[in-house]
Amino acid sequence: xxxxxxxxxxxxxxxxxxxxxxxxxxxxxxxxxxxxxxxxxxxxxxxxxxxxxxxxxxxxxxxxxxxxxxxxxxxxxxxxxxxxxxxxxxxxxxxxxxxxxxxxxxxxxxxxxxxxxxxxxxxxxxxxxxxxxxxxxxxxxxxxxxxxxxxxxxxxxxxxxxxxxxxxxxxxxxxxxxxxxxxxxxxxxxxxxxxxxxxxxxxxxxxxxxxxxxxxxxxxxxxxxxxxxxxxxxxxxxxxxxxxxxxxxxxxxxxxxxxxxxxxxxxxxxxxx
Length: 273
Description:
The chain has 9 helices and 13 strands. The strands form 2 sheets. A 7-stranded antiparallel sheet has the order 2-3-4-5-1-6-7, with helices on both faces. A 6-stranded mixed sheet has the order 8-9-10-13-12-11. β12 and β13 form a beta hairpin. The chain is globular and about 55 Å long. The N terminus is likely disordered. α6 packs across α7.
């Protein structure tokens, strides 16, 4: 339901933009996130546009504002922002907060937000990493220009604090991808053994990774998946069945695609770690 609301909220300019892009025959992709605002003060779109250009280095060809919606045009992608004076789905935010292990205060802070800004970036599907970079910079500008507590990525059920997201976005200038802001990493124990998984690699044309009942620690299992995801995205390496992961210790682990015993039967690439 939440994903539907993200798109219904936009005005005709949004639909026109999408139609125009589809007409070109481009395989399009949309990246959408929600900035959680602490109050219902509308975002100053004029100041925000300047911040996006000057502070976050986004080159804009043109822009247009209609009411509470702002559309920014860049070479190769279109950015749409919509201010809504009501909170995001309380049920979904509370559920995401339960798993937000990198934001310990999320359970108390995130559900208290009063309004939202939906940030959507649309562009070529084959340039997913570039679209996510653009999304990160624009979302960071919104966080920087508002009283926000955090940001939520519905497709990945990923919730991060304002401070963490902003610092990760700034690291883009050092060519460090904000992996934790794009992909959710889950960890849990089953029968005293470690399980870990990714949720979001499908956004980049790959199946998610999973370690099932490992004798290694949760931290070690997590590190293997994080390093694999980071290497794949930074080096444009597609992980698939038969691919081999190599740890820093030089150990190699082939990937095998099969149904997950935990993730609603989704097919994941198993790492026999």
